């Protein structure tokens, strides 16, 4: 290509001969290149020509023309990328490259500039979409919601395949998902949960559909998921006197379309099970295993409702109900209202919903509610010396914030509820001795936590920066003799009127300017709030939270004296009052404080559940039952439903069965 350019250049030089202007050689070469449609090669030649003769209008027109043409070519290429569907981030990036090229060639090109702005918005939106989906996918990974996570990752891959570590994330998530589902499948298999086994293998296959090993395992599980296999397992467990397992497999066998012979065997097992369970319930009661007696009686009804219709069954039920209620009263007196509530609920189910038992349930539930609802008392915050009312303002703000944001299992005690308690408890620097004294005297009954605090800083700093600016302003016009006119007049002393019409003007008008100084200023207000607080557990006397929080809010106002003649407007300083700025700083600190306190009580139900699991290691029945029921009632108080309640009731049932060696 260079040889061709040099050949053209040589021809142009010969053609031009010795009469060429400085830029003509480059201009002629550019023209020749343009005729050959080699526009990119022509551009630098036009630029060289124009740089040598910037006043040449022909050169300028030609240069602008080639720039417009090249820019338009890049714009067309960019739009071709944007027309591709489905749109991907790579298309936008390629289009951006073409637009950048167009702008570099012709910075004033309106189409290129408009397209650049549009691309900026589109690329930003697509990047934000990928960011949001990626964030949601990562949260799904944390929640082990593998399929949702993978779908989100793959959605991103469809339009932005090179986003961050997307490829690696998809691979690791697939592996983690399959591993998780296989573990869950193994767990389901260990408890004869065939549905769980199948559903988990199916989930693993949804992640890796071409995995032949998973397909083989799934087919094997499905082949065994038939009525005859489940019926055989039910008969096996019946021989072992494990009727809860019998019931499980009988239900499965019924759901899987048994034939006539199998249906007969199922009916026989149900009948035998009801009778056997009633016999065992009577033995349980004599053996002082009350919960086992309740479980067997309820299961007997599930096997054969007719088992309840004999006088012996009625007498047995009455005895179990009576003993469950008596045990509940005993536990309630001992302080285990949650365990008492559970046993009373069992009595209520066995009784067929007797009203008197229901009233007892509500009374016990109220006691447990009072126990699980944490009462927090907020004492007046100590004010700073420069603002004695500020402490009360902070206290009121904290009361309002926590009352609004506390969940149902947290109660904020207002000042009027505390009443004389606030006056009687004058806490010292540490606050420990007085709490202990008040607790012993019974004054703190019904209060679980105290919040004490001090407003250490409550100030507004004012800073001013003042100065001057200068502006050159036009204040009028002034006239000066025109030297060109004087020269013309000397050369044409006797010019006619017609000749004078073409003469230069006798005077030149120009702007009259002055340098004007005017005042400017910047005023800053900074509100500083520092709050120190501690949260004390009344039961233990322990300081469970202690922190110092700082908040700062700044406002800036600008002043300008203004210069009308120069078009500079007067600007008045506008700043919020100190009280407003301090209020914003206090609100920010209170929000932070409230989060520190309330987050401690955010998942009390899970805390109770975990505590119950820990207490199991000690083998104490009552404390474990109490914590499980605390978890259940806490969710009721919060008016929420989660797996916590189901898990707590299931684990409590297992724990009580285990404590009585119930055959599982």
Instruction: Catalogue the unreliable spans.
Output: 1-19, 426-433
Structural class: alpha/beta
Distance between the termini: 90 Å
Rounded radius of gyration (Å): 44 Å
How is the main sheet built? 5 strands, mixed
Rounded mean pLDDT score? 84
Write down the overall geometry. Answer: elongated
Beta-strand content estimate: 5-15%
List the helices and strands and how they pair.
Blueprint: H1 2-16, H2 24-35, H3 39-52, H4 57-82, H5 89-105, H6 110-142, H7 146-159, H8 166-190, H9 194-207, H10 212-224, H11 227-239, H12 243-255, H13 260-286, H14 290-303, H15 311-333, H16 337-351, H17 355-372, E1 374-378, H18 390-405, E2 410-413, H19 415-418, H20 420-424, H21 432-440, E3 449-481, H22 483-491, H23 497-500, E4 507-537, E5 543-560, H24 578-598, H25 604-615, H26 621-638, H27 643-659
Parallel strand pairs: 1-2, 1-3
Antiparallel strand pairs: 3-4, 4-5
